[in-house]
Amino acid sequence: MNEKGFYMNNFMEYLKNQDKSNGTLKTYTLNILNFINYYQQTFDEEFIASNIILMDLQDWRTYMVTRGLKANTINNRIAAIKEYFTFLQNKSIIKTNPAISLKKIKLNNSIQKETFTLKEFKKIKRAIYKEGNVLDIFIFELFSKSGVRITEAINIKVSDLTITERIGGSNLRVIGKNRKERLIPLHLDIRKALESYLLWRNKHKFKDSTYLLLSERGEKFTRSGLYKRFLKYQYLTGIEIHPHKFRHFFASQIVKSNPINIAQELLGHSSVTTTQKYLSTEKEDIIAAVDSLENL
């Protein structure tokens, strides 16, 4: 295995055989290393191509949008990573190609495109509640009403929960990036779903487990395992679903009616500049803002 398992030398030869220019080779190399660096820094683990799933690539795409990169830049990086994983599959280095379904973004893309519309959100919620799976309902409410990242969610411990009868007294302690800690108040919908979920845990004799989110076998969730919980509902609704889109939906709703510093605290952003990306400039919101002045 060469290049720390990245197979970059082999990939360059593969591209040369396709008569790609030296400029293209250099650009592809930089774009692929960009993803690899993102992955290793985000998940604090070594990059192994066979461990990558579609969700990782979707989250990377969303990350680039939130950083304000131009659509052409993002799409060029996506093109490079799709070519890279196609090469790995053709050489039998990986069995399945996680990038085959990775979509490029539209040229007029904004962060709003990387989240759900309200109509889509309600459709997903209806599908999940209609199925009635207690675990799925809790996962849905946790992600959509707390804004946690997937790596934060799978590492939440039962001891991180504080539940009281006092209004506003229940919260969730989350350890985010760079070990930064924050407290997230528990929305009523999360509390209701949590109550049913904890009963389910106790019924299946999982109550002694350290971690909050457990699979139906009582095991701590992996990122890919949690992602797969949503695939069923993606099929039922026809809407692309991955956990990070719920975080963006949560963020876009919070910034509509709260000071930007509140949203920054809830999301665990180190810089308010990142949070500002969620400020909507949709036409409907602009019209509503002007209409709100009519009673002055």
From TrEMBL:
The keyword DNA-binding applies. The keyword DNA-binding applies. InterPro entries: CB (IPR044068), DNA_brk_join_enz (IPR011010), Integrase-like_cat_sf (IPR013762), Integrase_catalytic (IPR002104), Integrase_recombinase_N (IPR010998), Integrase_SAM-like_N (IPR004107), Tyrosine_recombinase_XerCD (IPR050090). Residues 2-89 form the Core-binding (CB) domain. The lineage of its organism: Bacteria, Bacillati, Bacillota, Clostridia, Peptostreptococcales. GO terms for molecular function: DNA binding. Gene3D superfamilies: 1.10.150.130, Intergrase catalytic core. Keywords: DNA integration, DNA recombination, DNA-binding. One of its GO terms (biological process) is DNA integration. SUPFAM superfamilies: DNA breaking-rejoining enzymes. It comes from Paramaledivibacter caminithermalis (strain DSM 15212 / CIP 107654 / DViRD3) (Clostridium caminithermale). Belongs to the 'phage' integrase family. This is Integrase/recombinase XerC. Residues 111-291 form the Tyr recombinase domain. Site-specific tyrosine recombinase, which acts by catalyzing the cutting and rejoining of the recombining DNA molecules.
